[in-house]
Amino acid sequence: MGAVCPLSGENATSQVSELLNLAAEKAIRYVDNVRERSVGPASTALTALSKFHEPFPEGPRKPSDVLNQLDAVGSPATTAMTGGRYFGFVNGGMVPAALAASWIAVAWNQNAALRVMSPVAAELEDVVLQWICDALGLPSGCEGGLVTCATMANFTALVAARHALLKRAGWDVNEDGMFGAPPIEVLVGAEVHASILKALSMAGFGKKRVTIVEADNQGRMRSDRLPRLTERTIVCIQAGNVNTGAFDPADKICAAARQQRAWVHVDGAFGLWARVSPKYAPLSGGFENADSWATDAHKWPNAGYDCGVILVRDGEALRDSLGIAAAYLEPGARREPMYHTPEASRRARGVELWATLKSLGRAGLCELIERTCAHAQYFAKGLRGAGFEVLNDVVINQVLVSFGAPEVTREVIRRIQEEGTCWCGGTVWQGKTAMRISVSSWATTAADVDRSLEAIVRIARASQSVSSRV
Ligand SMILES: *Cc1c(COP(=O)(O)O)cnc(C)c1O
Questions:
Q1: Do 68 and 105 fall into the same domain?
Q2: Quick one: 234 and 345 in the same domain?
Q3: Are residues 38 and 176 in the same domain?
Q4: Which helix (H) or strand (E) holds 437?
Q5: Ligand 1 atom 5: the closest Cα is on which residue?
Q6: 43: containing domain
Q7: pLDDT class of 5 with cuts at 50, 70, 90
Q8: Ligand 1 pocket: which residues have CB below 6 Å?
């Protein structure tokens, strides 16, 4: 009855290419405009999202109509994370090669679970995991996998650690689970990232069963406050605190752990990438002596969402805890992706990661890290110069600034987000309400920093003068 059947008939191929051209046109227009538009979505764009809410359509629609609606309603309701003035969370942008490669990867629609399903996805994973070990200065024999995010990478590491430590104690956690198992003590710093606690709860350790080690005013775990470690201790340390960017003293902690055969896991979601720059070697040294590392390629390396990375020194622990057996799965002689991650079916996220690392190279990655850190320094200097209090030692790409009383800082953040020149979020750092500036995108230029700084100072002064009048 006049209904369109989107993909039947001989014209399917030409229809797909027409649609891809339409999508390309829209994506290119988005990319062209993203640097100049308001960084946060306009309130009208948010209101318009209600247009997506309709009863489930009874019949098919023309795919081009679907794309048109997606672009018309969806694109304005994005945050401009790929522009140069988005400083929220530690969200990364996307380097051009990654964006373009992802289009090809989507056309491939590969399932990266097994080599036989996607030889290219498996091969690119082999390559990028080695490159990352090399770039981050981690042991070359590490094994790992690509997961959605650092939370998942933290979880994966804890599952491998749990397996290895319990196996040594004569307990098979795969078969016998956690109930009745010999106890494992988990140490975290007082400024641990919430994702570690979530990962601990998912892995059966429990958020409350952890021992909290005191942290200093930058959020670094105090190595002089470490309790006695044993071969049934997991120590979770950080390379890059999400608020301050500070690094735990890995050298000292890893040395203490090594003596007792404790397992050290590094949450290095973004900070670990500082290790590609010789300039940051003194800050980020010692982490190579840990046992497992979680990081994100969608943060600082700008590989696009989503891409978490897990690396483990003892590959067997990873494979033993995540391998599965089924009659239709023939074990291959080569690395099989799904024996290294919790997931089986997965998108081929090695494609964008390969394109990112290949297009940047070591020098490009290093330059990206150093440039974003320099932008953060410039922000801090500008804010201090304007009379505002920067709360952290700006050691890498994170800046914490207070504009006075908590309600004033919160109001400044609200207005900055609303005004749209740039986008920054809030936090509470050791009792102080602060605004976070995280410079994590390749796209941020010096002009973007100047423009954002001008907007932040202007808005903060206006908010302060209003608040001092009431
Ligand atoms: C961002 C972050 C995480 C969580 O990363 P996701 O990719 O969102 O899971 C974990 N730890 C630290 C230190 C982070 O900065």
A1: no
A2: yes
A3: no
A4: strand 432-438
A5: 150
A6: 12-79
A7: low
A8: 90, 149-151, 193, 195, 238, 240, 242, 267, 269-270, 296, 308
